[in-house]
Amino acid sequence: MNEDGTILRLLQARDEQAVVLAERRYGRLCRSVAYRILGDIQDADECVNDAMMKLWQSVPPAQPRSLTAYLSGITRNLALDRLSARNAGKRGGAGHPAALDELAAVPAASDSPEDRLGAIALQEAMTRFLRALPKDARMVFLARYYAMLPIREIAEQHGVTAGQVQMSLKRTKEKLRIYLKKEGLL
Length: 186
Known about the structure:
The protein is mainly alpha-helical.
């Protein structure tokens, strides 16, 4: 059984060793995700701790297919929540990642059941949209809007100019806007 399988089995058995193994295997990744959003190592560490607690609380009943995606998603959401709380009283949301501003056209969810169902529909539509993109465009889009990497860093990773990254993002966002309209989500 691989390490992820072991962690999931231990979580199902409610063995606290699962959290220790998850932290050892995914702590660095989660810390990196949180730090990119928050820009503060202490806040990032707290997000990792919260993510491990949320993992413990959610599995079971959740049965993630990919612990990498599951934990990084939890961490990302926790970091975004922390950032929102931190900037709630600040005019202009200082420190708010520019990547989030670029996706302002995508609707935000609230806590009502209707909004949760809408968020699920949006997530499923986004998954279909991203799978249909060419690999390079998908990777650039995810690097910017999921990992929140700076455009310059994305360009370096892909061996292209910052302008090419910006153009790819612009085109992909326009395709996404059209797709979400077609799906009735915008």
